[in-house]
TrEMBL record:
Protein's UniProt keywords contain Signal: no
Name of protein: (S)-2-haloacid dehalogenase
Xref: Pfam families: Hydrolase
Family: Belongs to the HAD-like hydrolase superfamily. S-2-haloalkanoic acid dehalogenase family.
Alphabetized Gene3D superfamilies for the sequence: HAD superfamily/HAD-like (3.40.50.1000), Putative phosphatase, domain 2 (1.10.150.240)
Chain's role: Catalyzes the hydrolytic dehalogenation of small (S)-2-haloalkanoic acids to yield the corresponding (R)-2-hydroxyalkanoic acids.
NCBIfam families xref list: HAD-SF-IA-v2, HAD_type_II
MF terms (GO), sorted A to Z: (S)-2-haloacid dehalogenase activity
Enzyme's top EC category: hydrolase
Keywords: Hydrolase
Domain of life (superkingdom): Bacteria
């Protein structure tokens, strides 16, 4: 394995806590009482896959995630009875850009820094380039390259999201390891011939999470966290 490519939302960063934090500030600014920030984060995230599916299915051209997030933000605020016409466009853009300011899990930067000494490391995210760069700069995530949907022009789990990434790196599929906390992401990558590594994030969806607590298949690597992943890879 010469390159490790990482799912980002959930695997590298705690999107739920980050969105809830910034949503709480937004609600306070506009005196929007009675909306639970974590429930709001979940509701916004629930529109993520349907928005990308429209691009995957060809119903609309490929559209970068910042735009999809902004469209979904209007929908979710409307679902909570919030009239966005009365809100500052700058405030709405600031909330939408919260996805650029998510915090990594505590083991991420140290584990990636060690892994980087051995292998190429890059995001394999549905996030667009500006989002990934801004997130990395703020959180000191030491990527070698920025890969993902805007580069491959495909949203996971569509096969081109994986195969084009491998082509860009100039490697064979088995030399590229997809790292994710989501079994379905790894399953799609394996179907494209990539190696796979599962790192669970058992509180991605909160303390009552019931999905992706354990590996669902015999992945090539199963690690407790990124430090453990680095231990397994660098040792070999």
């Amino acid at each position: 394995m010469k390159a490790f490519c990482f799912d980002v939302f959930g695997t590298v960063v705690d999107w739920r806590a980050g969105i809830a934090r910034e949503a709480a500030d937004f609600f306070s600014e506009y005196d929007l009482t009675g909306i639970d920030p974590y429930e709001f984060a979940d509701s916004w995230r629930n529109l993520y896959q349907p928005a990308m599916e429209a691009c995957r299915s060809g119903k609309r051209p490929f559209t970068r995630l910042d735009i999809l997030h902004r469209e979904n933000l209007g929908i979710v605020l409307g679902n909570y009875g919030v009239n966005t016409a009365g809100l500052s466009p700058d405030a709405l853009e600031r909330l939408n850009s919260a996805w650029h300011r998510l915090d990594p899990w505590p083991d991420v930067v140290g584990g990636l820094t060690r892994l980087k000494q051995h292998s190429i490391i890059a995001p394999a995210s549905n996030g667009n380039i500006a989002l990934m760069v801004n997130m990395a700069k703020r959180a000191h995530i030491p990527w070698d390259a920025i890969l993902g949907a805007e580069v491959t022009q495909a949203y996971k789990p569509s096969p081109p999201a994986y195969t084009r990434m491998v082509e860009i790196l100039g490697l064979s599929p088995k030399e590229v390891c997809m790292v994710a906390a989501h079994n379905n992401d790894l399953h799609a990558a394996r179907l494209c011939g990539l190696s796979t590594a599962f790192v669970p994030r058992k509180t991605e969806h909160g303390t009552n999470q019931i999905t992706d607590l354990e590996p669902s298949e015999n992945w090539d690597i199963v690690a407790r966290d990124f430090n453990h992943l680095a231990d397994l890879v660098v040792k070999n």
